[in-house]
Amino acid sequence: MAKVAALLSLIFLFCITSSMNVIKVNGQKTWCVAKPSSDQATLLSNINYACSQVDCRIMQKGCPCSSPESLINRASIAMNLYYQSRGRNHWNCDFRASGLVVVTDPSYGNCIYA
């Protein structure tokens, strides 16, 4: 009986911790953006990493998200592409604590965040 209780406790704990990993805010969609306090080296590293994992062509010159060309803007786009493609889990927006999950759509003009 004690083994069954211990097993049920472990299953319950697994279910609780598993459900906490996916970010859902009142059923709303979430996006990942760069924290405004991030330094340039971190932002550049985030762009390089994210774009090595996902298609970042949307940021190329002449594409919808090519302007403005600020590093924080480009990092936010790349980080969000990565975050969305990996299932919107909080750990996919960490980027060494330089990512921020938001519930307000950061899209602007013709640049639509996925």
Description:
The structure is a single chain. By secondary structure, the protein is mainly α. It has three helices and two strands. It has a two-stranded antiparallel sheet. The radius of gyration is 18 Å and the shape is globular. It starts with a helix and ends in a 12-residue tail after the last strand. Pfam families: X8. It is found in: Cell membrane. This is X8 domain-containing protein. Keywords: Glycoprotein, GPI-anchor, Lipoprotein, Membrane, Signal.
Secondary-structure map with pairings?
Layout: H1 2-19, E1 31-34, H2 40-53, H3 71-85, E2 99-102
Antiparallel strand pairs: 1-2
Features:
single chain; 114 residues; mainly alpha; two-stranded antiparallel sheet; 3 helices; 2 strands; disordered N terminus; signal; lipoprotein; X8 domain-containing protein; membrane; glycoprotein
How far apart lie the N and C ends?
A: 50 Å
Bin the helical content: 40-55%
Label the overall shape: globular
* Rg over C-alpha atoms, rounded to the nearest angstrom: 18 Å
The order of strands across the largest sheet is: 1-2
Taken in chain order, the helices and strands follow as HEHHE
> Based on DSSP secondary structure assignment, what is the total number of beta strands?
2
Number of H- or I-type helical stretches:
3
Low-confidence segments: 1-23
> Mean of residue pLDDT?
83
Largest sheet: 2 strands, antiparallel
Q: What structural class do you assign from the helix and strand content?
A: mainly alpha
- What portion of the residues fall into strands of 2 or more residues? 5-15%
Protein name: X8 domain-containing protein
Signal peptide: 1-27
Subcellular location: Cell membrane
Membrane topology: Lipid-anchor; GPI-anchor
